[in-house]
Amino acid sequence: ASLLLGRLEQSSVSSLRPPSPALGRSRVAREHARGLVGPMRNGAAGFQRVKRGWVWNQFFVLEEYMGSDPQYVGKLHTDLDGGHSAVKYTLSGDGAGSIFTIDQTTGDIHALRSLDREAKPYYTLRAQAVDIDTNRPLEPESEFVIKVQDINDNEPKFLEGPYTATVPEMSPVGTYVTQVTATDADDPTYGNSARVVYSILHGQPYFSVDPKTGVIKTALPNMDREVKEQYQVLIQAKDMGGQLGGLAGTTTINISLSDVNDNPPRFSKSECSSSVGSAVGRIKAHDLDVGRNAEVEYTIVPGDGGAMFGITTNEHNQEGIIILKRPLDYESKKAYTFKVDASNAHLDPRYQSFGAFKDTATVKINVLDVDEPPVFNKPSYVMDVYEDTPAGTIIGAVTAQDLDASSGPVRYSIDWKSDMDSYFDIDPVEGTISTNELLDRESIARHNISIVATKLSNPVLTSRVAVTVNVLDINEFPPELASPHETFVCENAKMGQVIQTFGAKDEDLPTAGQRFSFKSPKDDMKNKNFTIRDFGNNTAGIVTKRNGFRRRLQEIYFLPVVIDDNGYPPKSSTGTLTVRVCGCESNGSLLTCSAEAIFLPVGLSTGALVAILLCIVILLVIVVLYVGLRRQKKKETLMSSKEDIRDNVIHYDDEGGGEEDTHAFDMGTLRNPKVVKENLFRRDVKPEMRRGPRPPVSQDSADIRDFINQRLKEHDVDNAAPPYDSLATYAYEGDGSVAESLSSIDTLAVDVEEDYDYLDDWGPRFKTLAGIFGEQSETQSDSTTTENTH
C-alpha cells in the first residue's frame, strides 16, 4: 500500500491566475520506496515487503485569494483506501486546523483564509492515514510542503530615497553620477513580478538611467554650473519588466554640479538700477542769501522728462532731488534730457526790478542696461490633447525672449512639483511640450503645469508661465440614426417633396459641439426614387426624386444613409430608413395604410399599438352589450304596454260621494287605461248623456266565444309573447248588436234618473241651480219621449 501525496489539481490554480510565461508548475518527482505492511494473506507469520509508490510533490496555494469558498489545495490518497470510508486522514503542522483543513474521508485539503506570501512563503505539514474504527496508523506519518504561489501585489520601492548626488560641471556625456536601487517584495523566482525596469520621468535631456542597473549618467555635454547648478531628476521603477499593468514606484534625485576652474577673472561693470520712487540724482542752486531768503524751489520744465521724473527740495541743504516716477526701459529709450528751474520761495517785491529771481539748468540722465529675465509672449497657455495619444507626441510650444540688448538664448524646463507633472516633457531649446506617457481623460481631465524660462547667460534670471493642458475625449462611438427610422410616402407625392426629417445621435461626450453630416452611399447615387438632403444643422431630409408611387407595385423602399461626425478620429456609420407607400388625401393626410405605417410616423412602439388595439376591442364589446340591453328593454316595454291590469294602477287623491256618487267618476275606465286620457270630464258640470235601452246580452253568445277563442290561439302561437302568465282584456262590441256597445269604456252609464225638483225647496240661494237642472231634466225627458215615439 502507499500514500500518494501532492496529487495537485492544476486546473484550480490556472483558472485563478491569468496565463503568463513560466507559471512554475509543481515539479513531480516520483520516488519508489519499500515499506512494511500487515500480516500476509495466507495467515503465515511475519511480514512481507511490498513496493510503495510515492508521488512526492509540493502543494501550491494562490496568495491573496478573494473567493467566497475555501481555496482548494490538493488531495491525499492511499492505496489502502478502497472507497468504503474505512480510512481517516489527519493533518498536523503549520496552520493545520486554523489555516488548512482536510476532509477526513476524501483527503481534500482546503485553505480557510487568504494567505500572504510576503508574510510566510510556505507551510510544512504532516499527513497520516489511520483506520477509522481503531485509529491505528495504516502508514507512517509523511511530511509535505504547501507553498504560497506569488502574485504581483507589491510595487517596487526605493528604500534609500530621496537621493543626493554631485557631478563636476562640463562633464562629458556618459559620466557616472549615482546608482539607485528599487526592491520588490514579490517572488523573484516566479514570473516577472519582481523584474524591475528603471526609466527617467523628469530630468531629460540632462541625465539618463540604465533600465536594468539603475545607473544614472550625464546625457548632455558641457553643463555649466554658472548657468544652472541644481537639477532634480525623477526616476521610476516598474515591475513586470516595464510591461503594461505592472506596478511602479518613484524616487527623486537632487543632483548638483560641482565647480571647475573654467572662467578667468574679469572686472565687473558698476551698474545702478533704480526703482520707481527712488532718487536718481541731485542738483543744487547756490543762493548767497541766508536763512529764509535762501530757500529754493525746484521745478522741471515740461518736456522730455516731465512725465518720467519729478524733483523735490531738501530743506536742510536746499538740494534738488530728482525722483523716478515711471519704470525705465533701456531697450525703449537710453537717455532723457530736460530742464530744471530754481527760484526763491519768498520774493521781496522791492527788489524784483533787479531781474528774474530764478535760474535754469539742463539735466541729462543716461539709462543703463540691466539684465532682465526672459519674457513669454503670452501670459498663459492653453493646449488640448486627445486621450491615449502616444508618448512623445508634441502638443504645443511656449516661447520666451531675452529683451536685453545682448538678446541671449533661453532654456526651458518644467517646474516639477508633483508626480502629475511627469506626464509631460519639454524640449529645453525649442520649448515644445510633449506627452511622456498615455493620458486618460476619465482619470485626469485637466493638467496644470508651470514652465520655467531661464536666461542662459544669467541662470539666476528666470520667469514662469502657467500652461493648462485639456485632455480631450477621443471619438469612440460612431453616430447613428435617431428615431424615427420608418416613415411613409403618399402615392400622390410630388418630385422634390421632403417627406421626412431625421437626425442623428452620438454616445460620445460632450454632446455640445457635435456636428453630423448626411449623404447617400456612393452605390446608391443612382436611386431614382429618393435622395438625402443635408440641411447643415445636424438634420437631413428624405426627398422624392419622381412623381407618384404605386403601392401595388412596391409597398416598401429601403433607403441607406451615411452619417459622419466631426470627432477625432472621425467616425461614420450607415443606417437604413424604411419608406412605406400609403394612400393619402390631396392635402397629404394619411388615408389608408397598414397599422404599422399609420402609427410609425408618430413614433409608437409595439406595446403602444397593442394597448390601442386592446382599448378598441373593449369599446366594441361595450357597444355590443349596450345595444343588446336596449333591444331587450324594448321587448319588455312592448310586452308591458299591453293592457295588463297588474301593471296599470291609477291613484286618485279625491274623496268620492259614496255609493250614490255615480257621476264623479266612471268606474268603467279602470278596465282600459287609455280612456283616462281620452274621456276626462269636469266634476263641476253634469255631463250630457244619451239614454237608451240596453237589452241584456247572453254570455254564451257564439260570436263572443269565437272571438275569445281566436285571441287565445293567437297568443298561444305568438313567439313574442312574454314568458310569464298574463291577463288580456278585450272590449268586444259584438256583431250587429241592437244595444250597440256593451262596454262601459265609451259610455257613461246612469242607471237612475235624477229628480232635481227638491232644489226648489232649499230656498232662494239654490233657485238659480234648481232652474238650470230643471231645464236640463225637461229637455232630457222630451228627447226620451221623442225616441220612444220613433
Automatic annotation (TrEMBL):
It is a single-pass type I membrane protein. PROSITE patterns: CADHERIN_1 (PS00232), CADHERIN_2 (PS50268). The keyword Glycoprotein applies. It holds the Pfam family CADH_Y-type_LIR. Residues 78-158, 159-267, 273-376, 377-481, 481-599 form the Cadherin domain. GO terms for biological process: adherens junction organization; calcium-dependent cell-cell adhesion via plasma membrane cell adhesion molecules; cell migration; cell morphogenesis; cell-cell adhesion mediated by cadherin; cell-cell junction assembly; homophilic cell adhesion via plasma membrane adhesion molecules; morphogenesis of an epithelium. One of its GO terms (molecular function) is cadherin binding. InterPro entries: Cadherin (IPR039808), Cadherin-like_dom (IPR002126), Cadherin-like_sf (IPR015919), Cadherin_CS (IPR020894), Cadherin_Y-type_LIR (IPR000233), Catenin-bd_sf (IPR027397). The chain crosses the membrane at residues 598-629. The keyword Glycoprotein applies. Coiled coil: none annotated. Keywords: Calcium, Cell adhesion, Cell junction, Cell membrane, Glycoprotein, Membrane, Metal-binding, Repeat, Signal, Transmembrane, Transmembrane helix. Cadherins are calcium-dependent cell adhesion proteins. This is Cadherin-12. It comes from Cyclopterus lumpus (Lumpsucker).
